[in-house]
Amino acid sequence: MSLKNQTVVVIGGSSGLGLATAKAAADEGAHVVITGRSRERLQSARAEIGHEVRAESIDANDEAATRRLFEDLRSVNHVFVSAATVTFAAGLTSETSALHPAMDTRFWGSLYAAKYASPKMPPDGSITFTSGISAWRPRPGASVGSASCGAIEAFARSLALELAPIRVNTIQPGLIDTPLIDSLMGGERAAGIKEMMAKRLPVKRVGRPDDIAEAVLFLMKNGFTTGITLTVDGGHTLMS
What we know:
Helices cover 45% and strands 15% of the residues. It is built from eight helices and seven strands, in the order E-H-E-H-E-H-E-H-E-H-E-H-H-H-E. It has a single domain, classed as NAD(P)-binding Rossmann-like Domain (Rossmann fold, 3-Layer(aba) Sandwich), CATH 3.40.50.720.
């Protein structure tokens, strides 16, 4: 399957995994729509992609805005939802309000995208969500984040049956070198973690956004793949 002249919507396409995927789809001739909360970052993303791209400033957790986005599109072939809120809240000891974003953006944002995109999709369309290896390798203090990853994987498997023949899959990245990592951890701490992980991972490097973009495009184009979680983690889940 070719993406040429197909409409690809990337929710959270202004940076990181979403931006890399949007650029890869545009390079293949797709009509790309990206969303993000920051107009400034969206404009920078458009310039980096280097093709004609539609950019819409919306919050993935805003149901009404997501509905308007898809109502305004004549048709949609593929959707990739990369938007997620990552926190380092200390589990159940945190204020409950601080825990909501980890679930709200990843799960409810994905649900809104699927709900309003699927009526605009042809039978060979696809939806790809994003989880994370914390669904299977939890760490103390990140129980809600792990739950959001597990929830989105279960949601995708169910939707693969509910929306069939539209295909629904999940991409499960490992540690990927994105601006988000640096902003969450601080540049020096992030550099140390990436160096340590590069030594430990079987592939001897951390991931790049392009690694995920290639995998997402595979899920968009392979018409015989649905209901799976595709792990792209450099062997992280194999580590003891």
